[in-house]
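Q: What structure does this chain adopt?
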Amino acid sequence: MRIRVALTCLCALAGMLTGIADLAAQSTAPSGTAPPDPTNLALVGNRFPPLKWADMSEQQKTMMRHVLDGPRTAPNGPFNVMLRSPVMGDFAQELGAQVRFNSSLPAPLREMAILMTARYWTAHYEWNAHKTAALRAGLTPEIVTAIAAGQMPKGMQANEAALHRFCSELLYETRVSNDTFAAAKAAFGEQGVAEIIFTLGYYSTVSMLLNVDEYPLPDGVQVELKPLSR
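A:
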């Protein structure tokens, strides 16, 4: 009897470990795709010189492993600056992964919120990267062009208009009206409204990191955003 119970427990434990392994596999690179080699990084920076793997502390290496073991394919953008405070940076990059890859917001709307944040901060690298992502996700070129010019896009769908109004008020007025909140809640639910706020907050942090670093655009890419009058 004891042997039978022990075998049952071992089988259950094996099943639990298999489940944990499956979950771990789901959080890393897609099947058949090897994660980037952290020892062969090509970080980019300006005021914050690019760090090399051999010069990183153990905390910095831990953060970079977490970045590269997740859904991202390269450590471009703010991560070279985040590494200067690796424990805090690790929490920040995890929030960023949740905001970008696990949001309940439809991809075009998520990218629209990111573009509005990049436009608010005139964050050139962020704008360039997420303009491509937004168009790929299905956001119309007309909406992207209007956001770049700081104008109200024409011909938006109801959910696009609700998101644009919410983001505009929160970014430029630091508040949202009762009507704006009600429209966003009706369109996205309370979870969606919270995730819009998280998106604006995280990408505002990214914009500040990039702007303070004066992070360069990729070779051959021209600055698209012009300063806005406020």
